[in-house]
Amino acid sequence: MDTKYNQIMDVIKGQVISGQLGAGNKLPSIRQLSERFSCSKNTIIRAFNELEKEHLIYSVPKSGYYVVNESQSTKSDIMNKKIDFLSAGPDKEAMPYLDFQHCLNQAIDMYKDELFNYSDQQGFYSLRLQLVKHLQDLQVFTVPERLSIVSGSQQALNLLVSMPFPNGKDNILLEQPTYFGLIDSVQLHNKTAFGIDRTRDGIDLNRLEFIFRNNQIKFFYTVPRFHNPLGYSYTNEQKKRIVELAQKYDVYIVEDDYLGSLDPNPKSDPMFAYDPSGRVIYMKSFSKIMLPGLRLGVAILPHLMVSTFLRYKFSADFNSSALSQGALEIYLKNGMFNAHIKKIKERYQRKMQLLQDACERYLPSDTSYSKPTSGFYLTVFLPELIKAKQMVHLLLQENIFVDDSTRMFLPEYRKENMLRLSVSQVEENLITQGVEQIARCITLIHEKKGVYFQSPSSLI
Ligand SMILES: Cc1ncc(COP(=O)(O)O)c(C=O)c1O
């Protein structure tokens, strides 16, 4: 999708905020702007249309475009815009809606029969073939028979929590903190879960060995790259060591590589690549890199687990959406997917860098933060006395949305001073402003020693 029109919108908005373009002022013509920005007239028209939708400008037939009269309120609207570090969906501006719409339309034609019937419970074979090819780019070499298409990776996780494993063990080991969807699943199924601290340096491998040896672990659930919520990634050496220990103690690993496609480091391997024995179950989601509404993910299981997994899957939903599968297959086949990944890789890397630059510049010295190279999430570690809950509450009053990571821990590991920031749905030009506000909030709570019931602006 063309993002040039966004840049043009930002320039015009900037001119309105700075007062360069006042109420009632006429904007330069479409032709002038297309020359100035070296783009097509259509791009300018699109930017104008979007600005009209936002009620920033209006058109006068046969005359041109003008800045709306309420420039003061326009200005404060922009200043008070929602800054959303909370939403975990993908960046809307980076989504290939139009391209994907073509694929969906084609899929309705091509897979009519599958829409009138229940389809393969393991997922379309033709899609699995495409995925096998695609996964090779991630150093995941496998065969279609080991792939199961699932209705989002959350479904696969939930099934893995509930189903029996060949090692006959029943307990689950989780990094602390971890993706809260798995904690929920473990609790709903009344499974016993153990935790192991994940830090900037990885996990304590001696501790991991101790837990593997003594606690009847069925599987270790890990998010090796761009961890949710921490943002950390393991080194290849750490991944190798974890796989070796799993092999030694007959423990399975559920490797949730939900953002692996965004990794800017071409040398970073998935754990799956180090697995000689089929103990690593690899999972990929299409929610963050494509659309969560598709409800598509893929799980790669060892041969001996496929039939049990499919039985559990069949009892959950028969099969995953035929329309989504068909469209994704077409999207992969015609090369659109690779082009899209290339584009979003740059975008998320840039946004994450902006977020870190802002953290570096504005957060107080007693506040630290993780430094992911890309992905969605960065964690801010607040000074001990400040609770994330307080910050969420305060920032909400400033129209800034952030997440408290407390629920991402098992109860006995809980820490209450971590804020999760998701960069995906924050507009680039608001990232710095958002972090500045977060920093101001920390300072205020500090100064007031826990008196946090007033909004930061009223305290200033
Ligand atoms: C780490 C991780 N794994 C899995 C999921 C589930 O994704 P989905 O079921 O949409 O594929 C999420 C969703 O946020 C996630 O953050």
Total strands: the figure is 15
Beta content: 5-15%
CATH architecture of the largest domain: 3-Layer(aba) Sandwich
- Biggest sheet statistics: 7 strands, mixed
Strand order of the largest sheet: 4-10-9-8-7-5-6
Shape: globular
Q: What proportion of the residues is helical, as a percent range?
A: 40-55%
Tally the structural domains.
3
CATH topology call of the largest domain: Aspartate Aminotransferase, domain 2
Number of helices: 17
Rg: 24 Å
Description:
- Residues 2-70 form the HTH gntR-type domain.
- It holds the Pfam family Aminotran_1_2.
- Its cofactor is pyridoxal 5'-phosphate.
- Keywords: Aminotransferase, DNA-binding, Pyridoxal phosphate, Transcription, Transcription regulation, Transferase.
- The protein is of the alpha/beta class.
- The chain is 44% helix and 13% strand.
- The chain folds into three domains: 4-79, Winged helix-like DNA-binding domain superfamily/Winged helix DNA-binding domain (Arc Repressor Mutant, subunit A, Orthogonal Bundle); 83-94 and 338-459, Aspartate Aminotransferase, domain 1, CATH 3.90.1150; 97-335, Aspartate Aminotransferase, domain 2.
- It contains 17 helices and 15 strands.
- Strands 4-10-9-8-7-5-6 form a seven-stranded mixed sheet, with helices on both faces. It has a four-stranded antiparallel sheet with strand order 11-12-15-14, covered by helices on one side.
- The chain binds pyridoxal-5'-phosphate.
